[in-house]
Specification:
404 residues; alpha+beta; 13-stranded mixed sheet; six-stranded mixed sheet; 8 helices; elongated
């Protein structure tokens, strides 16, 4: 008979009823059966660039285009920012190498009287032939990393003796120089960065202005419905649009815009080290599911769902940009093989190749999202579980009557 308990009861009743009807069933689409999606992205990169630095003579003044520079992978693509080119020929040579990669590998090519070369040993550079060559091109000094590397004295009173570099206590005397000694290998010669002139360094100008065209295809597996961001007048979010706002065509953006969105351009070293970018493609219609950035869904019951259900692009740098990181950026090696007439054997050819170490931007693609369609059983479950909450009004009212 308490009027305020009645107000409490009916107030709670209508609040819970509103929550179930408006939010749980209508807004959160509790009447729909959801399906995950799977799919793939196809990228087309176009543009041209010029190379600065010290290119080989046959590349002097050359214009490079995206067809030659861009490497496509199953999950994205790679665009080089710079390239080290080493012209090589099959033969025998010293395995001496100035690169940091060689120093990081533990100088497995270094040799001395105490560390001779074993014939037939396979290493990163080739196969050991036996001789330990005093390499006058590679003096050991303060910039020679790798403690414990044993060189050979050249000149001075200790000529021919083992040494550990000019910066150590054991030296080669006043007129001697501690040169590196390296195994002779059979393979492609000269090895990469064997001397300052063996490897040519190129930097590409214009690659940040390359244009990227993206087509994303997806399938809602449970419903066997296929969809594409270029189908039926659809487009994808412009790079300047909000990640979680409405989508606007065109489905095209520049490499510079991608890097800017990923926060890479703030790293002043990325042009030397490269970067790895994750492109998260998040499918959603005009209203993200539950209003959350973490969960996306498309309403497949809507009349124009194909136009409304479009991907949002979000860019994230996934490699460690810290300069002191063990490994950061992205690079890989490739080669271009060609044959030329052998000057010593008539009718024979000699195999040549260009070893290319490319440093640049690796773009990896990942998409996620889900779609929902009306399902009577799902709607019944949502309504039943929601209406069960109405019992809370009775429980609260009874508690107040008994204990208040």
């Amino acid at each position: 008979e308490s009027w305020w308990v009645g107000i409490l009861y009916w107030g709670l009743f209508f609040v819970i009823l509103g929550y179930v009807a408006v939010y749980q069933i209508v807004w959160a689409r509790g009447y729909q059966l959801n399906s995950s999606m799977s799919g793939a992205a196809t990228f087309k990169v176009k543009g041209s660039a010029t190379a600065i630095g010290d290119p080989p003579p046959w590349y002097d003044g050359k214009v490079w285009d995206a067809v030659e520079l861009v490497q496509y992978t199953s999950d994205g693509f790679f665009i080089p920012l710079d390239m080290l080119i080493t012209p090589q020929t099959q033969g025998m040579c010293s395995a001496g190498n100035r690169s940091s990669d060689m120093r990081a590998s533990g100088w497995q090519e270094a040799c001395s009287f105490l560390n001779p070369c074993d014939v037939g040993t396979r290493t990163f550079s080739g196969v050991h032939q036996g001789p330990c060559i005093r390499d006058g091109r590679l003096p050991l000094s303060d910039d020679s990393e790798g403690p414990g590397l044993i060189g050979v004295c050249s000149g001075g009173e200790f000529d021919g003796d083992p040494c550990f570099g000019e910066a150590d206590d054991v030296t080669c005397g006043k007129k001697g120089v501690c040169y590196g000694a390296f195994c002779e290998i059979k393979g492609f010669c000269p090895v990469e960065q064997a001397t300052p002139t063996a490897t040519k360094a190129l930097q590409f100008e214009g690659v940040l202005d390359f244009s990227v065209l993206a087509r994303v295809d997806a399938t809602f597996t449970r419903f066997e419905i296929r969809h594409s961001n270029v189908a039926d007048g659809g487009g994808i979010c412009n790079i300047n649009a909000s990640d979680f706002g409405l989508c606007n065509p065109p489905n095209q953006f520049s490499v510079r815009e991608m890097l800017e969105r990923a926060g890479v351009l703030t790293d002043k070293h990325f042009m030397e080290t490269g970067a790895e970018i994750l492109v998260s493609v998040l499918w959603a219609d005009e209203r993200p599911f539950l209003g959350s950035k973490g969960t996306y869904a498309c309403d497949l019951d809507a009349k124009n769902w194909r136009q409304n259900c479009q991907p949002r692009f979000h860019f994230t740098r996934i490699d460690d940009p810290k300069p002191d990181a063990f490994s950061h950026g992205y690079n890989f090696r490739s080669e271009r093989t060609y044959f030329e007439p052998d000057p010593e054997k008539k009718g024979a050819t000699v195999e040549h190749r260009e070893l290319r170490k490319q440093t640049g931007i690796k773009v990896v693609f990942l998409q996620e999202g889900q779609g929902g369609k009306f399902d009577a059983a799902t709607a019944g479950q949502a309504a039943g579980s929601g209406l069960a909450l109405l019992s809370l009004a009775t429980i609260v009212a009874d508690f107040v009557l008994l204990y208040c």
